[in-house]
């Protein structure tokens, strides 16, 4: 039987498995139908998390998975315990949080203790036991889905867990008869997942904002360490804030609107199941607001709740009324709770500690964003404003770590030396007045390019028949779905757009320099009656992926700008 090397991003909330696809010479996410979240066709979600595997286990007795007479025999002997994982575990638990159900076990793997975090009858389980059950069943599902056995494994490790975490994972892999086990620091995987090539020492700020925590880590990477999957931590800071806590904030906010007792909702065992359902609804609304301006929140998101609600809340009719929750409501809530202040403070703390070691802000080469909570409103805007669009990598927050681990496992440390999207400027058809996008840098272009990669003479538009004094040109990024995964793009105003949903050929056109489109000043002004080309413009892409423009005034026979960086390309 053919064997494969699987790479696993074991997250606190979700796990992603990937392999290196030799046919396409790129990493590929594995979609395991039995345990991944899958697509719920009855519900439209902005974020495609169908391939993610919930990081949880539901323990079960051996006889529960066997048929008579074996279930009777094993019930007497009580051999090894097993469990469901992922979506199976969630469905089995049904939101009751039975003692058999264990999630968030990753954090316990980094601790040198044997704290029990789950129980089944007289047996108790620590994090090592749960991790073993999870990974064992994950490998089984991979074999079922791909028809191939996993012989080798790469697992990502948080930088603050160091060798103790790695040692535990290696022991578990040995018990699973894995031939070779590699570990890679999560920040290194994130950098490789975004295609960063480490041919010289680089300082990279990793921002990991997921379901449980918000972590900033400034690392130094160089070729000899990245080849080993390791990095040097220069400075780091974090806060126990994540998507799960923000879901709770949303529920608390809505409880305050209706004068409901939030503490009772979240702590009373009798109705805590309702609280969990409201958290799921809050998560759905939160994700919808990544791109929408408003979304409807349902206090009774499930028909199952109707039979219970009447015994709990006096004003039953109010429960049936949907609540509009807007993006501005979410932003106000995050401001009130201090999230944006925390982000600023963590950045300042990391930079302050880095400066003690001689690393100033201008010496940070790249900023990499991973984790679903980086898509929250204004988070990208804060980071982009601080470090500049050209340094920020944020279009693969869910997959970057798994992709990087697959790159590492296959020893494919290739530099991404081509442009992945089309770039164009906008003009209008003289007859129909319809917009026309003239592509100046097509996707697939290798860089750096020659100085006059694209060159043409242009006639100023003279809008509204008025003489033109300022020569302006807006550059657009044209994204097109080209993989099965989603990509995320922020426009200049900080609004999030998603590529990877809907039709295969659906385009997404994003203006990049709307706030500063000026390419030079025409003196004297160009008049509409003059039909001769006035401007000669050429574009190139430099070694740092910047689109640079050179503008020559034909009338005055002089350059207005020479190789001026306009926007950073992807």
Short summary:
By secondary structure, the protein is of the alpha+beta class. The chain is built from 16 helices and 30 strands.
Topology readout:
Blueprint: E1 3-10, E2 14-21, E3 26-29, E4 53-54, E5 56-60, H1 70-77, E6 82-85, H2 86-93, E7 101-103, H3 106-109, E8 116-120, E9 123-126, H4 127-146, E10 149-157, H5 162-175, E11 180-185, H6 186-193, E12 202-209, E13 214-221, H7 223-226, E14 232-239, H8 243-257, H9 262-267, H10 272-288, E15 294-297, H11 306-309, H12 316-320, E16 323-326, H13 327-336, H14 339-355, E17 366-370, H15 379-387, E18 392-393, H16 400-409, E19 422-428, E20 435-441, E21 454-458, E22 468-472, E23 475-480, E24 487-490, E25 496-499, E26 507-511, E27 518-526, E28 535-541, E29 546-553, E30 558-568
Parallel strand pairs: 1-10, 10-11, 12-17, 17-18
Antiparallel strand pairs: 1-2, 2-3, 2-4, 5-6, 5-7, 8-9, 12-13, 13-14, 15-16, 19-20, 19-23, 21-28, 22-27, 23-26, 24-25, 28-29, 29-30
Helix pairs in contact: 4-5, 6-16, 8-10
């Amino acid at each position: 039987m053919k064997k494969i090397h699987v790479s696993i991003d074991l997250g606190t909330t979700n796990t992603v498995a990937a392999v290196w696809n030799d046919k396409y010479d790129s990493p590929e996410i594995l979609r395991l139908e039995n345990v991944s979240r899958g697509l719920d066709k009855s519900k439209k979600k902005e974020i495609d998390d169908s391939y993610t595997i919930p990081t949880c286990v539901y323990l079960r007795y051996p006889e529960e998975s066997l048929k008579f007479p074996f279930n009777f025999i094993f019930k007497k002997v009580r051999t090894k315990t097993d469990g469901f994982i992922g979506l199976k575990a969630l469905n089995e638990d049904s939101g009751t949080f039975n003692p058999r159900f264990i999630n968030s076990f990753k954090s316990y793997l980094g601790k040198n203790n044997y704290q029990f975090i789950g129980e089944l009858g007289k047996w108790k389980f620590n994090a090592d036991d749960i991790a073993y059950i999870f990974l064992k069943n994950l490998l089984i599902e991979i074999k079922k889905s791909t028809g191939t056995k996993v012989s080798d494994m790469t697992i990502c490790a948080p930088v603050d867990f160091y060798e103790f975490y790695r040692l535990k994972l290696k022991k578990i892999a040995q018990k699973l008869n894995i031939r070779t086990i590699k570990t890679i620091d999560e920040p290194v995987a994130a950098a490789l997942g975004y295609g960063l090539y480490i041919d010289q020492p680089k300082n990279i700020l990793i921002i990991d904002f997921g379901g449980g925590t918000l972590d900033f880590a400034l690392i130094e990477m160089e070729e000899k360490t990245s080849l080993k999957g390791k990095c040097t931590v220069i400075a780091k800071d974090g806060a126990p804030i994540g998507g799960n806590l923000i879901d709770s904030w949303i529920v608390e906010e809505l409880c305050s609107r209706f004068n409901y007792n939030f503490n009772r909702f979240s702590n009373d065992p009798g109705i805590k199941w309702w609280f969990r359902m409201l958290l799921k609804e809050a998560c759905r609304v939160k994700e919808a607001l990544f791109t929408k301006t408003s979304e409807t929140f349902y206090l009774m998101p499930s028909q199952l709740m109707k039979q219970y609600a009447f015994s709990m809340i006096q004003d039953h009719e109010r429960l049936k009324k949907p609540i509009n929750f807007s993006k501005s409501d979410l932003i106000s809530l995050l401001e009130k709770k201090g999230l944006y202040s925390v982000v600023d403070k963590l950045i300042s703390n990391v930079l302050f500690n880095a400066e003690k070691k001689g690393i100033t802000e201008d010496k940070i080469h790249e900023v990499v964003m991973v984790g679903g909570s980086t898509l929250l409103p204004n988070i990208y805007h804060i980071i982009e404003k601080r470090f500049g669009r050209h340094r920020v990598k944020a279009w693969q927050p869910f997959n970057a770590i798994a992709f990087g681990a697959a790159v590492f496992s296959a020893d494919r440390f290739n530099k991404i030396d081509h442009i992945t999207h089309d770039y164009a400027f906008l003009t209008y058809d003289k007859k129909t007045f319809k917009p026309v996008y003239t592509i100046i840098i097509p996707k697939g272009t290798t860089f750096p390019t020659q100085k006059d990669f694209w060159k043409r003479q242009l006639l100023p538009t003279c809008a509204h028949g008025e003489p033109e004094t300022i020569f302006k040109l807006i550059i657009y990024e044209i994204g097109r779905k080209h993989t099965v995964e989603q990509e995320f793009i922020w426009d200049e105003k900080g609004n999030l757009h998603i590529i990877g949903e809907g039709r295969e050929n659906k385009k997404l056109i994003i203006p990049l320099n709307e706030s500063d489109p000026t390419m030079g000043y025409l003196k004297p002004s160009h008049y509409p009656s003059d039909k001769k080309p006035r401007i000669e413009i050429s574009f190139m892409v430099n070694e740092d992926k910047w689109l640079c423009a050179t503008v020559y005034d034909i009338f005055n026979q002089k350059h207005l700008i020479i190789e001026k960086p306009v926007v950073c390309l992807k």
